[in-house]
Amino acid sequence: MPVIADHCPNCNSPLSWERDSCPGCGHYVGPPNIREVESERDALKARYEQAAEDSRARGCLNMVTEFTERVAQDSVAVINLWPSFLAQFLNGEKSLYSGYTLQTEAETRRAANLSNDRERRGTEGTLFGDYGLQIRYAALSIDCIGLVSYGSCSVSLRNALCINKGTLLEENSYSFVHRHRILPGDQIPEGRRAVWQDRHYLASAKIAGTIVQATTERNFAKLLLLSNGDRATDEFIEVHIYGAFGKEAFVAAAVPAVKKATTQEERCDLGKIHDSLVSLGILCKQV
Amino acid sequence: MQTGLISQALVIGSVEAAVYWTDEGLCALRQESSGGYVDCSRQASLLLDCPAEKRLVVDVSREQLEASITLWSRCQRLLIWLITGMDGTLSDDTRRLSLKLAENAWTEEIASFARARLLGCPLPSDADTAGAIRLADGLPHCLGMFQDLMAAAEYIESVSRKLKELVYFDYAGDAPPDDTYRALLDQGIVAAAVTLLAQGDGPGLDKLVKQFSGNHELLVVCPRLVDLLTFFVGWITNKYAHGNKIARFEANEVSDDDHETNRLTATLETAGSDIYYELIYKVNNASVTVLPPLEAFASRPLWSRWLLFQEKTGGSERLDFRQEAETSFKQLVKAGRVGKADNKSVADVDYITNSLLSDYSTIQQLEKAVKNGSRAVVKGFVKSLINKNIPELSSVRVIDLVTDFIFDYFG
Questions:
Q1: Is the minimum CB–CB distance between B10 and chain A shorter than 8 Å?
Q2: Element (DSSP H or E) covering residue B97
Q3: Are B249 and B193 members of one domain?
Q4: Is B361 exposed, middle or buried (0-12, 13-18, 19+ CB in 10 A)?
Q5: pLDDT tens across A78-103, in order?
Q6: Closest Cα in chain A, distance from residue B250 (Å)
Q7: Where are chain A's structural domains?
Q8: What is the pLDDT of residue B405?
């Protein structure tokens, strides 16, 4: 298993754990979330093996194995956006739209200062320290439907982005911090996070206990992610993507059909989304 | 700062949301379709990444922030609906619905914002204004806006560029220049100037200084506002209203058509423009070129293929070009109206394909524009059609010729 480098491989300067480059020579050392979680791979594998052993004793190892394989093959990171947000995300960079968009330097600078001035606060600070603002949240899904409580449009992200920038936490960060009573500066319990390549181990370690002999393949999607529109009851594995991404990172989308729109405004946004997804060559599933 | 105030927030009107800073970290809020507000802090970073305009508000209460989201959402959504109407990559259904929403949401307050932006920023090259006009049929506010945009389009780039130069280099105040420029643009200074230019309203230009010089919001960001406006209007007058153009502004008895002809002549001749000399060169050196392969024409509307044919055969340089154009155009219109083309009467049988329907639609729009609009509107329409379909023919002379015979025919 790889060990987190605490010195730059290029110039041997000490590395700060929350930075993605060497402070001495600027050498890129990788996203801090991945560097941090890499050290937990053994602990996660041990959790997974224990969960598999338990399921063998309960006579449902086959189904757990099937679930694990399904997650390894089909799972994607999904973000959820509301229609006007997704329509803007897809179209905002076209020159037709950006030509009428006036950003002002002062506002951009102020927004950047928000990032620079960030202190360790709240759940983000507890889990990520200074790089919390760099984290974009997604959820792990095997049917491309995400947390609809946060927006009716589910957008799947490219696997390559997740490999290069993504890590996972076994549940919502807020409830994770509260459940384990983690204070800023505390050690995060090992084996509860995963690099993207190990997501199936994390999913099985978390879910295996709920799989019984009567469980079928049909239940897998809802076992992995359950969202009925109420955020309080959402159950999911959280994906953390380090850094900004654009629509180029979108590989597929599950979007309500235009006829399901509840207002004319939403109908227009959904129509625009469907048209844009087609022209961008992004797979679109109507839900 | 008072207790309970949000020290700073970025309002993102186009997505009906705002990102703001609290002791708990970065938070976000969005307006739901029901009108209520819901927390969306989980998407705060994504909102910052979103390619959308962000507007800073400082020291506001939660209620004030919500009001700000409501206001800027209405403004930005109207603007985006109008832009969507010009988006040729979207389906007609989506574009038409977008324009209907714009028409229904129309109020003077938010329309002035949209107008200031649309007529204040250079028309993007991918804007399908002609399509927007077609789809805005029966939607008077939208149609009027697009017709004004079409008429003023040729002035926007240079006028907005000049204002920006003045703000950045000559009349900079304490405020950041991009803040100042956005304030000037959003108050409608560029839009007003280009509209007056399109209308040939010289006295109106003179009143522009008075109209905006007392604007308190602008005076805050630009203390030398009066000087800036005076110089700006002087520059516009000097650039567009010298020689014959001055007569055009001051002699109200001169017809619109004469104004337009004078303006073009004056612009070309007195400016010693490259276009003018290029035209002379082309006329003197006209030669018949080989026609491009038919496939190259296949995707073009019939009328544009006909024009291109004339150009490639040297037609546009011949003395009888106008007469030929008029005759063929009339036949094309006739053919379009009866739903079939008289192949022999149009330039060449091989250039007729099943694109007739779109040609007919274009002809209908042209006819409507002539009957409802000014010459400047028609010319803007023609220019847009030529730029989009046959950019290689986009010269002042060709645009003028086409406008002439279209105007004569339908007028």
A1: yes
A2: helix B92-105
A3: no
A4: middle
A5: 999 999 999 999 999 888 999 998 87
A6: 34
A7: 1-30, 75-195+218-286
A8: 65
